[in-house]
Write a structure and sequence with these properties.
9 helices, 6-stranded mixed sheet, alpha/beta, Aminopeptidase
Length: 301
């Protein structure tokens, strides 16, 4: 539900309450109505975000991502994202996919969220690979004067395995509120738009908080659906987790980051780099989106 619709809802509810109080004495009968109704909402645009990337030709900061024994996260995420784009547009009628990255080069975090918001995405799905940092151990290297000599060494940690769904952490909601103020649909004329974007306006505060809470619930629900599909395929899962991530808390829509596997785990790395593994990941995500889309288009809160 966009801001314009929310504003109409608030004013409509106010008028309804007044009318109800005025006419309620005329009738003792009550009629039960379904609070979940079809409002014509359709999911039309899905943003697919391939995490990380190579250093850009023009230079600047970039995020190369994790590394496995023979592969790089930035390459795996782009391959999966491209397959996901093709599968969504083939298997889900009426939906187009906007990619935040289509080349090997990294895209700044702000640009990724800007692409999502400017294209009025209905869902944002970010594709990543997980990894665990090396851990340090002490090992004996000899003896001197009857005492054991130790040294500290860094050892790869290959214990991580499976998928993980991330949603934005409520500890940092400011960026998302700003994104909602800037990108949610508002009035048809400049004066109303300017008034609606005033964060101090009580109506704006109510509408933005409703959108923020709704998108959070929808993000968690989408993450649950995706996670269930991965589990149905036999993948190990670490479930859902809140995390402060720029691309999640700067997008004005339901958003989920999918950690598709641990690239520094030998078994997961082979899976992530195989055609069968990438297709299985894509199929699970598409099934989850289909379920979410069907539910979202049937009802509204």
């Amino acid at each position: 539900m966009k801001i314009k619709a929310l504003k109409r809802l608030i004013y409509g509810l106010s008028a309804f309450v007044i009318c109800f109080l005025f006419f309620s004495f005329k009738s003792q009968a009550s009629t039960k109505t379904d609070t979940l109704v079809n409002n014509g909402f359709k999911i039309k645009t899905i943003i697919v975000d391939a995490g990380h990337g190579n250093k850009r030709p023009e230079g600047g900061r970039y995020s190369p991502g994790a590394e496995g024994a023979y592969s790089f996260e930035r390459n795996v995420t782009l391959a999966i994202a491209q397959k996901l784009q093709a599968a969504i547009e083939k298997d889900i009628e009426g939906v187009k996919v906007i990619m935040t990255r289509t080349t090997p080069y990294d895209v700044p975090f702000q640009t990724r969220s800007d692409i999502a918001n400017q294209n009025k995405g209905d869902l944002f799905i970010s594709i990543h690979c997980n990894a665990l940092p090396n851990h340090t151990v002490r090992e004996a290297v000899g003896h001197k004067k009857g005492k054991t000599i130790y040294r500290t060494v860094s050892v790869p940690d290959h214990s991580g395995r499976g998928v993980l769904m991330l949603v934005y952490d409520t500890k940092r909601t400011g960026p998302q509120i700003n994104a909602l103020l800037e990108n949610a649909e508002i009035g048809d004329n400049g004066q109303e738009a300017q008034q609606t974007k005033d964060a101090d306006d009580p109506i704006t505060t109510i509408m933005i908080n409703q959108l923020k809470n709704k998108y959070r619930k929808q993000s968690i629900h989408l993450a649950d659906l995706l996670n269930n599909e991965f589990i149905a395929d036999g993948r190990k899962s670490e479930g859902l987790r809140e995390q402060v991530l720029f691309v999640l808390d700067h997008t004005a829509m339901p958003s989920v980051l999918v950690e598709t596997g641990y690239i520094n785990n030998p078994t997961d790395e082979d899976f992530l780099n195989s055609e069968d593994g990438q297709n299985e990941i894509v199929d699970a995500i598409v099934r989850g989106i289909k379920t979410y889309k069907k539910e979202a288009e049937q009802t509204t809160e």
